[in-house]
Structure formats: C-alpha cells, structure tokens
Amino acid sequence: MLIREPGAPNWVTRPWYDRLFGATARDLLGRSLLLLFSIVTSLVIVGILVLLLVEALPAFVTLGSGIFGPIWNPNQNQFGIAVFIAGTLWVSSFAILLAVPLGVGGALFLSEYCPSRLRLPLRMIMELMAAIPSIVYGLWALKTLVPALRSAFQPLIGYYSGFGVLAGAIILAVMLLPTIVAVSEDAMRMVPDTLREASYALGASRSETARRVVLSGALPGIGAAVLLSLGRAIGETMAVLMVTGNSLVFPVSIFDQTYVMTSALANQLGYALADPLYRSALFSVALVLLLISVMFTLLAKVTIRWGMRRQGLRR
Amino acid sequence: MKSVNASRKSRSGLRLPRSRREFLDWMTYVSLGFVTVLLTVPFFAIIFDMVVKGLAGLTPTLITESIRNLGREGGIRNAIVGSIELVAIASAVALPVSIGAAVYTTEYSRQGRLQQIVELSADILAGVPSIVFGAFGYVFFVWLLKPWTGGATLLSGALTLSLMMIPTVLRTSQESLRAVPITLREASLAVGATRWSTTWRVTLRACFPAIVTGILLAIARIAGETAPLIWTTGYNSDAPWSIFDAVASLPFTIYTFAMSPDPVVNAKAYSTSIVLILMVLSVDVMANWASRRVGILVRKG
Amino acid sequence: MSLMKPKVEIKGLNAWYGDFHALKNINLRILPTTVTAVMGPSGCGKTTLIRILNRLCDLVPNFRMTGKVLVDKQDIFDPGVDVYQLRREIGFVFQKPNPFPMSIYDNVAYGPRTHGIHNETRLNEIVRRSLQQAALWDEVGHRLEEPALNLSGGQQQRLCLARALAVEPVLLLMDEPVAFLDPISAQKIEELIMALKKRYTIIMVTHNVQQALRVSDWAAFLYLGELVEFGKTSSIAETPADPRTEAFLTGRFG
User: Fold this and answer.
1) Chain A interface test: which of C55, C77, C82 (most A C-beta within 10 Å)
2) Cα gap A118→A151, rounded to integer Å
3) Is the Cβ–Cβ distance between B105 and B119 less than 8 Å?
4) Which of A280, C38, C143, C254 could form a disulfide with A59 if both were Cys (CB 3.0 to 4.6 A apart)?
5) pLDDT tens digit sequence for B112-171
6) Could you read off the pLDDT of A125-134 as tens digits, one per residue?
7) Which residues of B151-189 are buried (b: 16+ CB within 10 A; e: fewer)?
8) For C184, what's the count of Cα atoms within 13 Å in the CB-facing half-sphere?
9) How many whole angstroms separate alpha carbon B298 and alpha carbon B126?
C-alpha cells in the first residue's frame, strides 16, 4: 500500500537544515519558540528583582541608613520603614508560635493515632481550608474574631479594640495550619513502618515511638514546612491588613495595634505616585519583603535536600 | 501495620492506665486528639458565619445585576464576570508560556542546566508575596507599559495574575512530563517520528490529565487573590467590554464591601464570599476529578 | 533460501558508553529473509548492538562508536541519511510491550500517520493488514476503538509488532520480545516470527538458548562485547567452535 521506489533505499538524502540542525523545519521553529518561553519564565523573577531594586534605590541613596529609621511620616518626608518590619516580625513570629505546635501535633495525631475512619474527613477539611481565599479569612477575622477578642480580653486588660498583633497572628496561624499539617503529615508518613515496628518490638509505647522515631525522622520535612510557612506568613496581605489596626507605633505587647509591611504596600502604593521619594521608600519595603521570602524559600529547599541526604545515609 | 496501633489503643482505652508510661501515652493521645479537633474549629466557624450571614443575600439578583450605589443596591455581576475574564486572560497568557517552557526543559534541554535554572526560578517565584506581584504589576504594567495596557485595566490585572500562575503550571507540567516512561517515547521514535512529533502526539497526550490538574490548581489559586489586583485593575461597576477597561473582581469587591461603614453593604460581603468560595471549590473539585483520571492511566500502564 | 547479497553488514564496530567499551570490533553479515538470534549473557552488548541498527543509540548522550554499519549497502550513519525514514524501514519491538495510551487502531495507525498518510480508507487497510500479519486481527478486529492498554501482555506485544509492521519495514529488530510474556503468548509470537521471516529480515536478541534453537536460522554469540561466534544455528548448536559458546549453550552461565 505504501509506495516504494525500487533501487536505493528511501532514507538517503535529506534537506540542508535537517543536516545542519538534526531536525525538520517544523521541529526547529517549534523548539526555538519553546526555548524563548523557557528564557522568559526564568527572566520573570529577575525582572521583578531588578524593577524593585531600581525603584527602591533612590530611597537608599537619599536616606542612607535612615531608611531603617523608626518614624514613618510621609507628610514630613520621613520614611523610616523599621516600624513595618517590626510589625511583620511581631505578627509572623507569634503566628508561627501558634501554628507550628498545633500543626505538628495535629499531623502527628493524623499520622500515628487517628482511627482510619476519621482520617479522610479530617484531611478533606484541611484541604478545604487551604482552598478558602485569604480575603474570606480576612472578612471573618474582621467581623467575628476581632469582636470576640475584644469581649474576651477587654475586662482583663482595659480598653482593647480587638485589632492588633493578636488578631493578625491568630488569623495568620489559621491560614498556615493546613499547609503545616499537610506537609508534616507527608513527612511523617514517609518514615518507614519498619522503624516503627522496631520501636514497638523493643517495648516502646505509641507516644514514645511517635516522639523518638517518627518526629525525628520527619524533622527535615517539618523544618521545611515551618520555613515555607514563615515565608508565607511574612507575605500574607489581605487578612492581616484587615485586623492589625494599621497604626504606626512599635508594638510592645500582642494586644497592641501594628502596621505590617504588606499592609503598608497594599494601603499606600497608589498614593505614592506623585512623590518619588515616597514611592521609593515603599518599594524598599517591597524589596525587603522579596528578599526575605526568597531567603526562606531557598532555606526550605536546602532543608529538604539536607533531609534527603540524611535519609540516604540512614538507609 | 496499623493493626498494632489499633489493638494497643483499644487496650489502653478500656482499662485504667497501670503505669506512668501508659498514662503519659494516653495523655498524649488525648491532647493530640484535642489539638486536632481544635484545628477544625476555625473551618466550621468560618463556614457557619458565611452561611448564616450570607445565605439570605444569595438571591438571583446578586448574580444578574451589577453593583449600584456603592453596593447598597444591585448585585455583583460586574465582579463575577470580571473575575472570570481576569482568570481567562491570565490563563491565555500563562499557560502556553509555562507549558512550553516545561516541555522544552524536560524534552529538549540536553545537559539539564537550563532545566535547573528554570526550576529554581519557578520555585523562587512561587514564594514571592502576592502584594509584591501587585507592586511590580503597578509599576510595570499600569505605569511603564501604559501606552500598551491602558493603565489600570483588565489587561494589567490579568498580566499580573499570569505571572503568579507560572510557577504552579510549570512545575506540575514538568513533573507530569517526567512521569511518562521513556519507553513510550522510544516506541514513537522507533517508527520514525521526530522528537517534536513525539512530544506532542505521545508524551503530552500521556500526561494530559496531570497537566490539566496543575492548570486547575493554578486557576483556583489566582481566582481568590486580592492583593495583586488592588492597584492594577481600577474599578468598574459593569463588566468591561474590552481588555483596556478597568475591571471589578470578586475578591476586591468582598474587600470593599467588608470595609464599608454601611451594615447593609457588609452583609453583601458574606454573600459574595459564598459565591467566590463556590467558584473556587468547583475548580478544585474538577482538579480532583482530573487527577483521579491520571491514576487510572498509571494503573493500566 | 538466502541470497548472496547481505541485508546488513557490520564492519569493525566499536561502541562506548563514556569510558565503558560496550562493543569490541564486531564484524557481522546478516542475510535477507532469515532470522538471526543475537545471544549472550546479560551485559554482553546485545541490546547495544541492536539499538545501533535503528540509530536509537543517537539518543544516549555519552554514546560513541566507530566502524561501519551498512543496510542494503548503505551506511546508516552517513550524514545524508534521513534518520526518520531509516527508522521507518527498520522496525523495532521492545522488551516490555509499550503500546501508546490510545486505542488499538490509533496505535497501529500512528506510524503511517507520522509519515503523512491521512486517508481513512488507506489507514483502515493498513491497520487491518498489519493486525493480520501480527495474528491479532481475529481477536481485536471488532473492537479497534478500545484502549490498547486493556489488552493482555501477549496481545499488547503483538500490537507493538503490528505497529512496527504498519510502516512496511524491510528489517525487523526485536529486543527479547517474549521476556515479559507467559509461555503461551511467547509461543504465539515465536510462531509469528517464523511466519514473518518469509517477508522480512529479522534480528532477535534473546538470552533463551532453546528459543534461539527453535526459531532462528543464524546465531551470533556475544560475550563481554565481543562477537565470539557466528554461524548457522544448527551447526553452532551441535559443534560450537569456542568453549565460551559451549558453556553458554549448556547453561553454565545465563
């Protein structure tokens, strides 16, 4: 059915571009386009970094180290971003302090103790929580969490609006929990059952096994989860924006209001167009945000690789 | 394996702990269980809140009418259509680029160095805060490229969102392509197909459901984003007719409703949240269904 | 039944993976319409040899070779060669059945479609003919739209054979085609090979001596990259010239 020429085999001689590049013309065009796409995707992060640097540079040049000063007052040309950095540190650290023990504990329960009937519904709930957009968390925090905090603590500490570090930390912790639970649980499940059996065979209880064998075995994964969550905590915008009060003072307790870096950007970006120094100061905040998040992402990757090497040595 | 746990649990649950160790074991079990229950409380609290405060506002007019009088009247049609348009255009830009880059780095890049660079860039990009994307989009798309984007428009917002889609789609596509066994590619080459032809007719076809899952997950993620849109989309009380018009979005609408001093408008925030959650959940359900189809293919092969 | 003109000529072939010398100075002549078994213990280079013949070795990054490989008197590594056409003319059946995750029909039609045949009538004819040649038509002819992965292992391997035959090769390469199959399916494929050799030249890699004795006309024995012995299967089996060949044939190493 296929036509064959008599004599020489049909596979001799091919077009010049095929000889040169080892591919048909269509191959070549397609491949070049895909190469372009690959380059473009790598350039995105570079582009963002460069743009932020360029925008932030005037602030560093003009203010020097004054950019890290304590007073932020655009009307008086004072652009110290330290108050935002402090706010982010307060809210994120407290959120992690809440989320990690609870998250790891929950993961441990799901992995080692949970009756199998409950496992699937619990995991589904975690998945659903991860799917809820941050603005919805913000809405709930604004209208329900803040008043609840106010009525709970006001009798104890005097005037308390409910807005502040505590509210931000709690809602942030709630948003971080699904990820911490999921990643930690995965890490725990990867600990081979034979190790657990060995522990039980030596007479250890379930909790002792969980602590000594599972937890330590899953530590790199948990560490990576914590680092990634730290990165997310620092970068979370909407929910924190709505409940921290956005006041330009350095917090001294978790009941104080505060202003975090992401909120500063979200609130003020548009107004800074007219004043180049104002805009530049804001972009220095963005730059700090970017660098911190990149650092946590890289640290998480290093932790995972360290963990894999550790497991390789073990086996 | 787990039967060892089960028998232990029933034993220590049925009788009084006899030793300190058994007591500690039991205490750990109870406290961890309590913690897990505690973890689920926010979920139920939020859902409860949404339903109680928002269900009443879920009328047909919510979906069919656009916003009027700053939200005191009318519906949210402008935001619903706006969100759909934003996601559609963001996908149209991000998907070819991401999948194309994934295909190139897994199928054609010889030493794998470009592959590593692309992977690293995507992983770093995945950790960048959404407001930083917003700040970038503001300067780059709304300001610098104003002659081409028209300022704070549907196009600018969609382009900003597309940048956020790239890491997810690229990484999941890479993983999916890598999962296709080499022998399938070899079978195609053995009958005389070129590598390009093999990539599209065999390799991509084999991992298509997995790639679709990645796409849907990326879509679900950006559909709920607010921060990148605050300064890049402007405001529109109607659905835009062209990509050079400003556009409203569901998340941003929820934000403005929530911050409004008017309690009538506040209540609308809950109804809008229900709409947004339903839309995001339906995409997630589709992603789940698609990923299960991958499982079927893998099992047969 | 053999003509004087060889179908495949291998002259002075040496091949390396990086520093590993996989094939050492192979000289071989394959006659048309015969079945040649390439035998040897694991790691002796038989898969390497067979993959050179349809230039699948091109895909391995640190692969290097010297020497000449001629098919129908033409050097297949000549820069003027269209390797896609070459691969069409030299069919390949893999060790583990690897049908595409498509329908049975699409699997067989894949090759012809690749080479530009889209006419439905012609494709139908090609699919039917190929499946008949692979002795699969009776079993699947009525359900061509079913996924190929629904078939049993033996059926899948016959499908892969049909897929290779659909592009009308002149040379068929088989890399241990029954290694993953049950004895009954293996037997069916062996019968097929005996039938196919009337039209095609077949080179089959196998580590199963009994199979080589049953099926092949000529046999090449490789050991650690060297061609130890080559000749008619019957004479090698009765009177192997090299002690290594005899050791392999009697099963002293496998």
Assistant:
1) C82
2) 34
3) yes
4) A280
5) 788 889 999 999 999 999 999 999 999 999 989 999 888 899 999 999 999 999 999 999
6) 999 999 999 9
7) bbbbbbbbbbbbbbbbbbbbbbbbebbeebeeebbbbbb
8) 3
9) 28
pLDDT above 70 covers a percentage of chain B that reads 91
CB A118 within 8 A of CB A102: no
- What is the CA A278 to chain-centroid distance, rounded? 27
Pick the CATH number of B62-300 from 3.30.70.270, 3.40.50.300, 1.10.3720.10, 1.20.1250.20: 1.10.3720.10
Structure tokens, A248: 């330009």
- Contact between chains at B300 and C149 (C-beta distance less than 8 A): yes
For residue C222, list its beta bridge partners.
Answer: C227
Chain B residue closest to C111 (CA)?
B191
Helices B77-103, A25-63: crossing angle, 10 deg rounding: 120
Classified as helix, coil or strand, C54 is coil
Chain A interface test: which of B3, B8, B104, B168 (most A C-beta within 10 Å): B104
Closest residue in C to B205 (Cα) is: C101
Where along chain B do its domains lie?
A: 2-40, 62-300
Kindly report, residue by residue over A207-262, the tens digit of the pLDDT. Answer: 888 888 888 888 888 999 999 999 999 999 999 999 999 999 899 999 999 999 99
Paired tokens of C106: 């699409």
Regarding the domain delimited by C8-98+169-249, which CATH topology (the fold level of the hierarchy) does it fall under? Answer: Rossmann fold (3.40.50)
Contact B194, B47 (CB under 8 A): no
Cβ–Cβ contacts within 10 Å for residue C147, how many?
16
Say whether A18 and C82 touch across the interface (CB within 8 A).
yes
Structure tokens at C60: 């391995």
The whole-model pTM stands at 0.86
Helices (H), B200-262: 204-206, 208-223, 227-230, 250-259
Distance from C-alpha of A119 to C-alpha of A114, rounded to nearest angstrom: 6
- Please name the residue of chain B whose CA is at the shortest distance from the CA of residue A229: B127
Tell which A residues from 56 to 95 touch B, by Cβ distance under 8 Å: none
Q: Are B247 and B83 in contact (CB under 8 A)?
A: no
**SS3 state at A6:** coil
Sign of the CA dihedral with C65 first, then C71, C74, and C77 last = negative
Tell me how far apart the terminal alpha carbons of chain A are, to the nearest angstrom: 58
Distance CA A230, CA A224 (A): 10
Say which residues have a Cβ less than 8 Å from residue B41's Cβ, sequence separation at least 6: none
Quick check: ipTM above 0.95? no
Instruction: Summarize chain A as % helix, strand, coil (round to 5).
Output: 80, 0, 20
The domain segmentation of chain C, as residue ranges, is 8-98+169-249
**Domains of chain A and CATH, by start:** 84-259 (1.10.3720.10)
Rounded distance between C-alpha atoms, residue A248 and residue A257, angstroms: 8
- Give how far Cα A214 sits from Cα of B4, B28, B37, B90, Å: 16, 14, 21, 42
Closest CA to A214 of B5, B26, B23: B5
Sheet holding C201-206, edge to edge: C74-75, C63-71, C8-17, C20-30, C226-232, C218-223, C35-39, C201-206, C171-175, C90-93
